[in-house]
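Here is one chain, start to finish.
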Amino acid sequence: MDDQDFDNTIKGKLAHYEDPDFDPASLTALRAQLASATILPWYVRYRTELIVVSALLLFTCFNMFWQAKVGEERDQVLFKVIDSLKVSQQQVASCSSSWPNARQMYQAISLTPEKLRLRQVLHDQMTTPYSKSGW
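Its structure:
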C-alpha cells in the first residue's frame, strides 16, 4: 500500500469520528479562558535581573574604555617626562668635562624648588655664628 492510499484510509476512518464525551460548551469556555489569559514574555519575569545585569555591564564597559583612555594619556605624559629627564641628563653628562662641579650641578637640577629651599635654610642655620660646626 502506498502512502497516498494509507493517508486516504486514515482520513476516511477519522472523518466522521466524534468523541462521545465531547461538550461544545466546554470548548467555548476553554477558548474564552485562553483569550482572556495574558501570556507574559520571558523577559517580564526577569525584568529586575536584566536591568541590574545590563547596568553593571554598561558601567563595566564605560570604566574599561575610560581607564584605557586615561592610561594612554598618563603614559604619554610619563614618556614626555622621561624624555626631558634624558635630555637634562645628557646635558649634565656633556658639560661634566668642562665644569669641575658637575655633580653638584646635577644634584641641583634634580632638586625640586621646595627641596632646594629647605637645603638653603638648613645650610644657613648650620653656618650661623652660633652653630658649632659647618657643613
